[in-house]
Here is the input.
Amino acid sequence: MGNVPHRFTYIINMKKIVFLLLLTTQVFFAQTGFEAGNALYQKGNYQEAASAYEGVLATKKHSAELYFNLANSYYKLNKVAPAIYNYEKALVLCPNDSEIKNNLKFAQKLQIDEIKDVPKVGFDRLLRDFTAMFHYNEWAWIAITFAILFLSFFTGYFLSQTSSAKMIFFFGLFLLAFLIIVSLLAALFEKSHYDNERPAVVFAEITAVKSEPKASASDVFMLHEGTTVYVMDKLDDWKKIELTDGTEGWIESSAIKEVK
Here is the structure.
């Protein structure tokens, strides 16, 4: 009986070692696959490069750079839907990357559908334009920075010896408190928008958007490969979508692929 605890500990340690070996192996092959994809891309072997990048994704490893390079490979192959989809995936991870945005615009020129972007008006639009200046994580860091400044001003207020200095710190505290609140609200608004927004890309070469979630319903309009839509609802094998011009309809779930 005295040997059982030692044997049990040995088994646990072996499991840990095996887990670490598997993890190390996955990381190694993922890195190797990524580098192989880069080498193939540089040689102009875009299909092989895309396969190598897809192989890395199959190991559950992903990054903005990986999606970006994969999108570039599909763009070179004139595969509009996979290119746009992976550029969008890259933007989810790096929403302010100008190079990704620029390449996405080039890929979108391959689209057949020309959907107008009808901007919203009023206070909602102004609020969205303001909060969209930064990602919700960046707004959180801005709030933290203002909070640190608030503590500094709070300390300065109590340590200052003159009334004029106290007055400056006093009003500074009110201003910083206001900026902290604004930053936090902006972060919450952007996080809510991120969670509720469900972009998707049409992968079917051509598909009908229906007035109702059933095959026998009348066609509202047609969509082609590469068009970006926004999922609003789901019913069985159908998804309700909205275009950037405000048009709505139902599309088969298999015809689109959600970005996040």
